[in-house]
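Let us work through a complete example step by step.
Step 1: write down the sequence.
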Amino acid sequence: MKKTLLSIFAIMTLAMGMTSCQKEENNNISFQGSMETYTAADDTKTVLIGTDVVWEAADQIKVYGTQGYGIFTATPQYPNNTVADFSKGTANPGEAPYYAFYPVSIANSESNITLPTVQATVNGDLTYFPMFAKSDTTVLTFKNLCGVLKLNLQKENVNISSIQVSVEEGKNINGNFNVRQSGIVPTMTYVANGSNTTTLTCSEAQAIDETKSFFIYMPHGTYTNMQIVITTDDNRTCTKTLKANKSVYIGRSQYTEINLGSESLNF
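Step 2: predict the structure and record it as C-alpha cells.
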C-alpha cells in the first residue's frame, strides 16, 4: 500500500511538472515588430534622433489572439532598431490572427481603441504615437493610425506648458474608434465618447527660445474652424483661429506643419 501511494504521488508529481512546463512553454511566445516610417518627416516615434523611426527598450505592445491578450516588452535589434523582438509576455494570447497595438494604453479589444483627450510630451517630442498591426504569424508590421499636426513656434523668452487644439463641432479627434485593416493600411471609424478638443501637456515647461516644434497626433481627415490655444508656464495664453475659408488636412502617417512666428504669437 505504501509503495502504491508512493507510485501515485510520483505520477502526480510528474503530471504537475509536465503541466507546469507546458504552461511555461505557452507563455514563452514572442513576436517581432517592425514599424512604418513617416511620410515627409525627419522625427522619430519618441525622440528626435536624426531620420530613423525606432523602438526603445521600454516600449510595450498589447497583442490579442484567440485566447485573449498579452503585453510584451521590446528588445530593439541594434543598430537597426526599427525592428524589435517582443517577449516576456504577461499572458499567452493564443493562436493567430494577432491584433497588436502600441501604446498599450489605447487598446480596448482586438478592434477598438481609445485616443486620449490629453496627450503628454517630454521635451516637446512626439510620444506614444498610435500604431496597429494585424498578422497571421508572430511577425508584426505596425502601421500608423494617425497623422501629426506639427506646430513650429517662434518666440523669445516664452515657456510653453500646454497646447490645446480644437476643430469644428462633430469632428471627434479623441474617444473610441473601431480599427480595421482589410487592405494595406488600417482605417479608423469613430464610435463614441469623443470630443473635438485635444490638449498637449508638457511634463516640464518648454522654452521656445528661437524656434521649437510641438506634435499632436490626430485622426486622418480635413478639419475646419481649427483653434489653437497656447498656454505659458505663467498662465498667459495665445489663441489662434483658422480663417473661415481655410481647412487643415491631416494625412495618415504624415506631418502637417503650421508655422506661428513672433508677430502672430501675442500672449
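Step 3: interpret the result. The chain has one domain: 28-260.
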